[in-house]
Description:
binds iron/sulfur cluster; two-stranded antiparallel sheet; 14 helices; 18 strands; alpha/beta; 413 residues
Amino acid sequence: MPLEIIQAGTLGSRTSLSLSSGNEILLLEERGIKRRRNTMTTNEVYFSDLRSSMKRNLLTKLGELLDSAGLENIVSSRDLVALKLHFGEKGNTAFIRPVFIRHIVDQLHSLGAFPFLTDANTLYAGTRGNSVSHLKTAIENGFAFSVVNAPVIIADGLRGAAYASVPINQEHVEIAYIGREIVEADALISLAHFKGHELSGFGGTIKNVGMGCAARKGKLQQHSDLSPKVKAKKCVGCGECVAHCSHEAISLSDEKKAIINPEKCVGCGECILICPNGAIDIQWSKDIAIFQEKMAEYTFAVLKNKREKSLFINFITQVSPACDCYGHNDAPIVPDIGIVASTDPVAIDQASVDLVNRHDPAQGSCISGRVKTGEDKFRALYPKIDWSIQLDHAEKIGLGTRKYELISLEKKK
Length: 413
Ligand code: SF4
Ligand code: SF4
């Protein structure tokens, strides 16, 4: 079964298979697919559609996709492999189905690796704001050990304070704060559910890695340059935040309202979680461009010690209009498209956004009647958000390239 490049670049047409010199191709007789043998990252994005048969079901095709993208060269025997995914907020049903995760886990076990599932706690106080409720939510959404055959280890500790400081000296971020267990892992496999996102236009690999692997302090750094703010109307002066802040940055005013001293605040974000009345909130950055650029820089930080030991997979299925952080998901904006895998975190997101935009909008979805086939679905969802900023900046700082080769696993017809 030959590999077929069905697209080159973002607007390219059908072309023949071409690879840069030095990339050795090995024919895998038993599976009939070709695979690169070295570990160099490339702009190749491997694509599996969702067609399947008795002989070749979707799990088999997922395995082929991982082989094609070079999983065997990225993961070594005895590696501790972090599978970074989003377990879905309670009530959300659009996240990646556990049966796919189980298949990837088993494939990693066959290579002698030790995979674990991971995510970092959220900045806001939802059902994944601390490790206890996060684990409970993950299990309730189907990610129990008995199902996925691997443990879930929350990357940034009980309350999101367990981070590693990663110096990167980029334009916006000098030091990034990443969930410690992810930094300590030998290899990273990002498993992103590709969907719309209210701040970045779409959420794919860069969002899953850059924002998703950040500890609470790192998430706050990306969302805001400022300390959290107290909503005085909601504050009842209980003093819990005062007692909890280990930097003595919070005090109570004469009117029994919490006050945050920005000189002392280090932006850990813990008081947001601790307040029982939801009176402390993020000062959301109004500058979406800077937010997206910081997210790309955080992706750089996560990959700093494992650039040759990382693989990215986007599930372009149930493409919901908004993030899986909500306790609901609206109807998909396009029909299910497939799964893509790459060693280039920029190329895979560019390919994914192009695949979505090439499709018809789904009938009955929130964008139905507002956008045509080939038009930008994410701009239709969020007209003020330019999603290309994250890709441009990621390319600029050397994470990868927006020019890609989309290689289908299907036989050339
Ligand atoms: S924990 Fe919340 S309600 Fe209590 S003092 Fe702090 S801000 Fe006010
Ligand atoms: S963000 Fe952290 S350091 Fe700042 S006030 Fe809240 S708990 Fe204290």
